[in-house]
Structures are given as structure tokens and as C-alpha cells.
Write a structure and sequence with these properties.
By secondary structure, the protein is of the alpha/beta class. Helices cover 43% and strands 19% of the residues.
Length: 321
């Protein structure tokens, strides 16, 4: 009888181990923390994921927008959360790859304080020009910049952004010291590139796709290893002879020390979500390409980008406040 009770107990333990890690408290919601405003591109990604995760994980999923400090408020919200997988960050990896080089007093460790869960998507950064140069391709733009070094500048949506550091790398690659002209967001930068007040614009591809199609400006290169399906007529920078690739990674992270089983469950659910046809098509309409990964792959991407941005940030001279 005693042996039978032991066997029953062992079987129950094994069965519990096989159940999903979230199963014991299925009513507790998962919080997706997004560091930018509702209605924006990253908020869209968070809400699309939430809709799918509710079904695949069988539990409530809510999106919370925690604004401020370029996603750092959101990162700290997640950093302080319990490591149970119920609070996760969805956003770009900039707080973990560029900010450590920008801010001398960053209040989190980009590696030790977070658990990589999955890359879910990428969106491209592109280089464009307008009537200031009338360049039809990258070769003509480079020739113009070399011939007009006093006017050689590039606009971006803001200081300390990926577009700023792509501009630094672009200037290094072509041997021209480009002056950075940061704007407060993409809208005023778009106005000035179309008006011919700045010669070059470096920004997210989604910001300028419609203007490119309308002939108001010309996208000359996409900073990725492959052409974007959004503008397949535009070559990559590598095709144009500039050996640069700067895809923006959209990823899911949790606080440090989430149990591996929960990480696996979240990863599998996220990968399933972004592989769904309706999700791929919806995000593609915003210039976002789904690109799911394992936790290990995301960690490797983060490590490579952390190394990449160090010298670029230093060369830019930018120091965050």
C-alpha cells in the first residue's frame, strides 16, 4: 500500500511537471509593457501579440503604455517585476544596445537585468534624398556630398537614435564628415527634406515609403541585408556599395531569472503569433517584417548590436541627458 502511494505521488509530480507553467494560475493576466505611445508602431506590435497570446496561452493579456525616457521607464517597470513571465517588455532593443554607450548612469544592466524571450520583428532604416541634391541613386548622392562638403548634412527624427548612428557610419563609409541635424520627430524632418532644406534624411523606412512612391523624395538605400518587400525597387546599402546593415529589432524581454520552462512557453507562443498569416500581413502594411527567433538567437543579436554601436556612439560625440 505504501509503495502504491509513493507511485501515485510520483505520477502526480510528473504530470504537474508536464503541465504548462502558467496553468496553475490561469486567471492572472500577462502584462505587455510598451515604452511608446498608444497608436504608434510598437504599440501596434504589442496589441497584435496580445490578441494572439490570449488565445495560445489561454489567459488574459493586457497592454500597458509606460512612456518616458526613450523606453527606459518601460524597461525599469519590467526589470522590477517578479520573474514569473507575467510582465514582459515589447519594443526595440535600443535601450539594451545603444543606451549603454550613450548614458553614463544607466539604471539597469542590459544583460544581467533582463531575460531574452524572442525577437518578433524587424523594421528597416533607410537613407533618402530630395530636391536639395536631386540624386537618382546612391552613387550620385555620394558624389554630391563629396563635392558639397560644407553642405553635407543629414536629418534624423532625433538625437541618440539609430538613424543618427547609421548616419555616422554612412559618413565614415563614404569618407565625408556629415553634420547631424536632429529633429523633434519624423514629421518636421520630412517637411524639410521634401522642401530641399536638408540634403539627406535617415529615418525608419515606414516614415518615408508613401513620399517615395509619390515622388516627393527618393529612397536610395535600405540598411538591411535584403531588400524590403515594402519597396522592392530600392537596393540595400550593400548593393549600393556601402557595407552597412542596421535592421531595427523588435523583441520581447522579461525580468532576469524567469524559469526556462516559462521562457520556452512564451517564446513558442510569440513565434506562433508572428508566424500567423494575418499578423504578417498586418505588420507588413506598416513596414514591419516578422522575424521570430529563439531566446538564444535574440541574446546573440543583442550582444552583436551592443558591440556594433559602441564605436559609432563614440564617433558621434553624443551623450544622453
Amino acid at each position: 500500500m505504501q509503495r502504491r502511494n509513493v507511485l501515485i505521488a510520483l505520477a502526480a509530480t510528473a504530470a504537474a511537471a508536464c503541465r504548462p507553467a502558467f496553468a496553475q494560475d490561469s486567471k492572472a493576466p500577462i502584462r505587455i509593457v510598451v515604452g511608446l505611445a498608444a497608436g504608434g508602431t510598437l504599440d501596434l506590435v504589442g496589441r497584435v501579440l496580445a490578441d494572439k497570446l490570449r488565445v495560445s496561452l489561454g489567459r488574459p493579456v493586457v497592454v500597458e503604455n509606460k512612456l518616458g525616457a526613450g523606453q527606459r521607464v518601460a524597461m525599469n517597470e519590467v526589470r522590477r517585476a517578479a520573474p514569473d513571465g507575467r510582465t514582459i517588455f515589447v519594443g526595440t532593443t535600443s535601450p539594451l544596445t545603444t543606451y549603454p554607450h550613450i548614458y553614463t548612469k544607466l539604471d539597469y544592466d542590459p544583460v544581467k537585468d533582463f531575460t531574452p524571450i524572442a525577437r518578433v520583428a524587424q523594421f528597416d532604416t533607410a537613407i533618402a534624398t530630395g530636391p536639395a541634391t536631386n540624386a537618382r541613386d546612391m552613387k550620385e548622392l555620394i558624389a554630391w556630398l563629396r563635392a558639397n562638403k560644407n553642405a553635407a548634412s543629414y536629418a534624423t527624427p532625433g538625437a541618440g537614435t539609430v538613424p543618427q548612428f547609421l548616419g555616422v557610419a554612412f559618413g565614415q563609409a563614404i569618407g565625408v564628415d556629415l553634420t547631424h541635424v536632429p529633429y523633434n520627430g519624423s514629421t518636421p524632418a520630412l517637411t524639410d527634406i521634401v522642401a530641399g532644406r536638408v540634403p539627406v534624411l535617415v529615418t525608419s523606412l515606414s516614415d518615408i515609403t508613401e513620399l517615395h512612391r509619390a515622388g516627393k523624395l527618393r529612397i536610395l538605400g535600405v540598411a538591411n541585408d535584403q531588400r524590403s518587400p515594402v519597396v522592392p525597387d530600392v537596393p540595400t546599402l550593400k548593393e549600393a556599395g556601402i557595407p552597412l546593415s542596421f535592421p531595427n529589432t523588435v523583441a520581447i524581454y522579461g525580468p532576469a531569472n524567469i524559469p526556462p520552462q516559462i521562457v520556452r512557453e512564451l517564446n513558442e507562443a510569440a513565434v506562433q503569433a508572428v508566424n500567423a498569416r494575418d499578423v504578417r500581413e498586418k505588420l507588413a502594411g506598416y513596414g514591419i517584417i516578422t522575424a521570430p527567433s529563439s531566446p538564444e538567437q535574440l541574446a546573440a543579436i543583442q550582444a552583436a548590436d551592443l558591440k556594433l554601436f559602441g564605436p559609432l556612439v563614440k564617433a558621434s560625440g553624443y551623450v544622453g541627458q
